[in-house]
């Protein structure tokens, strides 16, 4: 993710006066322009304050930093919500195109606008700070010791003992039941705020940020899911059979849903960690990035430097000295922090940083590129006006770094930077593609369902009593998963996924998993690549990098289809790039699945 401050950020004194005679007369275009420019200046000031409060709390979670963050966030929310409401005054006023877009973006600025009544912004901000802190400091007992989410993820990544996996999977989910009531209160407040800005509910507000009608956007995500669903089902079928081979019928039956704790990841959102279990028979992969990184003596800082080097090869300027002095790159041993990886820009100029509890493994190698992508994007659009300093849409923001990681994952690149001695031949294409699909294709239904659940919560279709049952309905429907055992009555499993207590919309990741392949396909074309897409690395392609940067510099200044066109020539989100990339694997999976009873 990128930082929450764009969403939740800070304080300033309102310059705008209360309702006056001037406001009852029809305002002019010049007034609209002046209003927007003033709003931008104040929001910028408020962000500068809120961002630092948020950074300090995320790097040192205490009662006091929570208090400070919540105060700053409440003030910023109040300010931005008030501007968003005032923006409605200019509805129907014939303004210039830039001002019109800014007025629109002002209403979409906050992830959860606060209700316009005394105390409501404070209550909302307190709940969010508390939810995020509860998640981030969560611990539970395992083998007689209190363990963190990081420790639990290590077990899920590497243990092949189903009893142990189940214990850790269930253990982490003892952290979230205490969030349920707060989440319900938060959802009510956020909805009230969204309604005051003219949206049906918070879900509709989130769906309105894609330069199209919110219902059309929901339909668009359905269309995209339909494009990739058959491929996911093939992967599910193949992986389930291999898990059945490994664990037997008593643990993982050969038909029906997959047990969610067996897939190597706490949320079963990326399955790359169980490659050893599902690897094709007869064709071994000649390298394992996890091992290479350790063997070559990588440490967390070297991982980040390696990520920086990739972007430098595309022509991006090096990271500033302050990045290295101010980022948090490993988990500190003596204080509580938010370990979920994020990227920040504290001054909306050059003060870019990441914050992650980096481990030396393949997953974090990719996450480093992901987070840096946010930072380079933030720096690229820093000269845009405040309201345009954002991704073309939030899916773009999540896709930049993943796009880089696609090239940085290729054996050719790993060889170029000295991690891998020998580039494997075409016989290793299937093992490679399978590894990538375990992360990228397995992710798609998860990327979709987190917000399907929240959309239902915000619309009232899912009540607090139904929170957990409806979560599992979606987990079954989209991912074909089941819990290792019946869930306790008080379970609140959505709360065990960072972005729910963190209040970060999630559909962006679903979109990013499509955009990154569109970017990759276009970039490889521009680089003159003629081979299969999955073998293409754009490392060192400065001309292509320059064109990519031209897209990034635009920020959110125009509707995203136009921005997509600048780099790819395309104007639609299109999963055909995913199909192109994985084509040989899908064919292979269909063959492997012969005789299996696929589906669930
Ligand atoms: N950037 C990732 C995400 O957006 C962070 C991670 O998964 O570690 O949440
Ligand atoms: N980084 C996002 C997450 O943690 C998507 O992969 O869920
Ligand atoms: Zn991200």
Note down, in words, how this protein is organized.
It holds the Pfam family Peptidase_M2. This protein is mainly α. Among the domains are: 129 residues, no CATH class; 199 residues, no CATH class. Helices cover 57% and strands 3% of the residues. A two-stranded antiparallel sheet has the order 1-2. Helix 19 runs antiparallel to helix 21. Bound molecules: aspartic acid (ASP), serine and zinc ion (ZN). Serine binds next to loops. Aspartic acid binds next to helix 16.
Can you list the ligands bound to this structure?
aspartic acid, serine, zinc ion
Main β-sheet: number of strands, strand sense, barrel status? Answer: 2 strands, antiparallel
Distance, first to last CA: 32 Å
Shape: globular
Low-confidence stretches: 4-19
Count up the helices.
Answer: 24
Strand content: under 5%
Rg:
24 Å
The helix content is 55-70%
The helix-strand sequence is HHHHHHEEHHHHHEHHHHEEHHHHHEHHHH
* Structure class: mainly alpha
How many E strands? 6
Protein name: Zinc-dependent metallopeptidase
InterPro entries: Peptidase_M2
Organism: Phenylobacterium zucineum (strain HLK1)
Binding site for chloride: 210, 508
Secondary-structure map with pairings?
Blueprint: H1 5-8, H2 21-24, H3 29-59, H4 63-87, H5 97-107, H6 120-136, E1 140-142, E2 145-147, H7 149-158, H8 162-172, H9 180-196, H10 202-207, H11 214-247, E3 258-259, H12 275-278, H13 289-295, H14 300-313, H15 321-326, E4 342-345, E5 352-355, H16 362-380, H17 394-408, H18 411-416, H19 429-459, H20 467-479, E6 481-482, H21 507-526, H22 542-553, H23 560-568, H24 576-592
Parallel strand pairs: 3-6
Antiparallel strand pairs: 1-2, 4-5
Helix pairs in contact: 3-4, 4-5, 4-6, 6-9, 7-8, 11-19, 11-24, 14-16, 16-17, 16-22, 17-21, 19-20, 19-21, 19-24, 21-24, 22-23
Bound molecules: aspartic acid, serine (SER) and zinc ion.
Aspartic acid (ASP) binds at residues 1, 341, 367, 370-371.
